[in-house]
């Protein structure tokens, strides 16, 4: 699978006023049974933002996954799409093993961990850019390359994707942030392991480790070259 970048660290960046923000905040998924879908997404531990009705012909329910800036809505007469037709809905996690175990504990039928093969001839769903699934983690533990999948009761397909280091330009340095304690903990553990290697190279204890950790964690998230 190619890692062709739409925007690299060398791409021109806007100066001064960047214009209007355009934030993706809501995705509509089609379901047949609204109450069944509500029960399922509640079981995932997602935040219920609202359940709105207008008479007997219209209902909208909104959920937000933990740490997400984007919510999902479904309901009655909110979309003409066929129930279960949504595919390739990505949920980004920093530790796919822990995320999968949590979903299993919540009773979700979720696939084994897998990675994308090099042959673009697969027909597995949810869609994986046409690549054949290969069992297990990516052998090189590369970011963006390890997944697990599950469906909701209607068949809408979700993919967990493990992202530990962002590609250059995906997050501006000024916007680096950790949206949950679990994500921050995982980043701290990776920084700790990397800092251990740093001290092996220098042969001495690093009194400035807080600054080193901070630099490593921000650069890892924004896709900049990491300190060594």
Structural class: alpha+beta
Q: Number of helix segments?
A: 4
Q: Strand percentage, roughly?
A: 15-25%
Could you please say which CATH topology of the largest domain applies here?
Answer: 2,3-Dihydroxybiphenyl 1,2-Dioxygenase, domain 1
Mean pLDDT: 84
Q: Biggest β-sheet, characterized?
A: 5 strands, mixed
Question: What is the number of independent domains?
Answer: 3
Quick one: CATH superfamily of the largest domain?
2,3-Dihydroxybiphenyl 1,2-Dioxygenase, domain 1
CATH class of the largest domain: Alpha Beta
Spans of at least 5 consecutive residues whose pLDDT stays below 50 are 1-9
* Approximate helicity band: 10-25%
Characterize this entry briefly.
The protein is 25% helix and 20% strand.
Explain the overall architecture.
- With 228 residues, the chain is α+β, with helices and mostly antiparallel strands.
- It has three domains: 23-83, 2,3-Dihydroxybiphenyl 1,2-Dioxygenase, domain 1, CATH 3.10.180; 87-164, Roll (2,3-Dihydroxybiphenyl 1,2-Dioxygenase, domain 1); 173-222.
- The chain has four helices and nine strands.
- It has a five-stranded mixed sheet. The chain has a four-stranded mixed sheet with strand order 1-4-3-2, covered by helices on one side.
Descriptors for this entry?
2,3-Dihydroxybiphenyl 1,2-Dioxygenase, domain 1; Glyas_Bleomycin-R_OHBP_Dase; 228 residues; four-stranded mixed sheet; alpha+beta; five-stranded mixed sheet; 3 domains; single chain; VOC_core; elongated
Q: Mind sketching the topology for me?
A:
Blueprint: E1 26-28, H1 34-43, E2 47-53, E3 59-64, E4 71-76, E5 89-93, H2 96-105, E6 114-116, E7 133-135, E8 146-151, E9 157-162, H3 181-202, H4 209-222
Parallel strand pairs: 1-4, 5-9
Antiparallel strand pairs: 2-3, 3-4, 6-7, 6-8, 8-9
InterPro entries: Glyas_Bleomycin-R_OHBP_Dase (IPR029068), Glyas_Fos-R_dOase_dom (IPR004360), VOC_core (IPR037523)
Domain VOC: 23-163
Protein name: Glyoxalase
């Amino acid at each position: 699978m190619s890692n062709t970048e739409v925007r690299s660290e060398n791409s021109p960046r806007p100066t001064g006023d960047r214009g209007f923000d355009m934030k993706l905040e809501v995705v509509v998924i089609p379901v047949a049974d609204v109450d069944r879908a509500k029960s399922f997404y509640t079981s995932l531990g997602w935040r219920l933002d609202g359940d709105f009705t207008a008479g007997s012909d219209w209902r909208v329910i909104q959920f937000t996954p933990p740490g997400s800036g984007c919510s999902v809505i479904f309901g009655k007469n909110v979309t003409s799409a066929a129930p279960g037709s949504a595919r390739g809905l990505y949920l980004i996690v920093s530790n796919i093993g822990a995320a999968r175990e949590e979903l299993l504990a919540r009773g979700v039928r979720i696939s084994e961990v897998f990675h994308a093969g090099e042959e673009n001839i697969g027909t597995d769903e949810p869609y994986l850019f046409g690549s054949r699934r290969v069992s297990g983690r990516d052998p090189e533990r590369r970011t963006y390359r390890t997944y697990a999948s599950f469906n909701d009761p209607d068949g809408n397909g979700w993919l967990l994707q493990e992202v530990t280091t962002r590609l250059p330009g995906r997050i501006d340095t000024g916007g680096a942030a950790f949206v949950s304690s679990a994500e921050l903990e995982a980043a701290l553990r990776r920084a700790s392991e990397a800092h251990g290697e740093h001290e092996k190279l220098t042969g001495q204890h690093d009194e400035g480790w807080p600054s080193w950790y901070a630099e490593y964690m921000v650069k890892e998230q924004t896709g900049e070259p990491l300190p060594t």
